[in-house]
Write a structure and sequence with these properties.
Rossmann fold; 28% strand; 313 residues; 14 strands; globular
Length: 313
């Protein structure tokens, strides 16, 4: 009786459907190996986080996937079929799109003009603006966005601009989205909005690779997590089976304990003033900013994209 029920259970188990398989990926630059037989498998309609420190190989692996780099060896399969990308356009035509941290929208154009940029719909020799507006609005509604397609990009927050980038990718029938540090420049409210959109996309069958250094959000939004270290895939696990400390341990290996060892500074900053800025104003970007830096002191400048951090320097 037990054996029969076990057979029935096994027969009912659904086999994994991988929309993307990257097998034994190798890549070197100037004879220095950057990827060493890396495997990555992405299930349909899942969010798969790709994690690793700087130089671990994340960007190189994704650039191979999106056709920016060519692999030295290894195989890539989309829906079980082997593919060979020689350019970003090759990958795009196969339904793979990357949403970069630095947005590529044109602020003086409208939402629909950005969505269909270089992919405009025409009626004869003229642009079919009404059709583009209508299709853009449907896309925005499918993502749960309340903005209209004729809004200017310059009038939107960074979070909404990122959603427009996603809508643009979907307008080109993207089935795999690579999200590169998508929350780095977002407020908490915008992060919540992005996560709701990611859940909607999952229900629509879109698969996503999610790159981030924010461990807590990785565990919140991801189904699986793959961890790269020194060009090797050291772990792939269900997100529900991992903790932040697990991820950090895999990222750092034996360096983990030393990395979190607190060493107090031996030489405190002096009272000698090295830099003083009073009531700084730069066009409409900086308004009445004051700060000072003492000798031996480290002053951090933080803020969201567009907040004026770069103009301060």
């Amino acid at each position: 009786m037990g054996e029969n029920s076990q057979r029935i259970k096994k027969a009912k188990e659904k086999p994994m459907e991988y929309i993307l398989e990257m097998k034994d990926m190798c890549k070197s630059f100037n004879d220095v190996p950057v990827l060493k037989q890396v495997d990555l498998y992405l299930e349909k309609g899942h969010v798969h986080a790709l994690v690793g420190g700087n130089g671990a190989g994340k960007s190189t692996l994704m650039k191979i996937l999106t056709g920016v780099y060519t692999k030295d060896s290894g195989e890539v399969f989309i829906d079980g079929k082997p593919v060979h990308f020689r350019s970003y356009d090759d990958a795009s035509h196969a339904g793979i799109r990357m949403i970069f941290q630095e947005l590529s929208l044109i602020p003086t154009l409208t939402v629909y003009e950005n969505i269909f940029l270089n992919n405009e719909k025409k009626k004869g020799q003229l642009l079919d603006k009404e059709t583009m507006k209508e299709e853009a609005n449907k896309l925005l509604q499918s993502l749960g966005m309340t903005i209209t397609s004729d809004a200017l990009i310059s009038s939107l927050s960074v979070g909404y601009c990122q959603m427009v980038e996603i809508a643009k990718a979907l307008s080109m029938d993207a089935k795999i989205l690579v999200l590169d540090e998508p929350t780095a420049s977002l407020t908490d409210g915008e992060v919540n909005m992005l996560f709701k959109i990611i859940q909607r996309l999952k229900k629509q069958g879109v698969s996503m690779i999610y790159i981030s250094h924010r461990m807590s959000e990785i565990l919140e939004i991801s189904d699986h997590v793959s961890i790269l270290r020194d060009g090797e895939m050291v772990a792939t696990e269900k997100a529900s089976n991992l903790s932040v400390s697990d991820i950090v341990f895999h990222m750092l290996g034996n360096k983990a304990e030393k990395t979190f060892e607190w060493i107090p500074r031996k030489n405190p900053p002096s009272d000698e003033l090295m830099l003083k800025v009073d009531h700084l104003e730069i066009d409409h970007l900086i308004d009445d900013l004051s700060f000072s830096v003492k000798k031996g002191e480290i002053v951090g400048i933080a803020g969201l994209m567009g907040s004026g951090r770069t103009e301060n320097r």
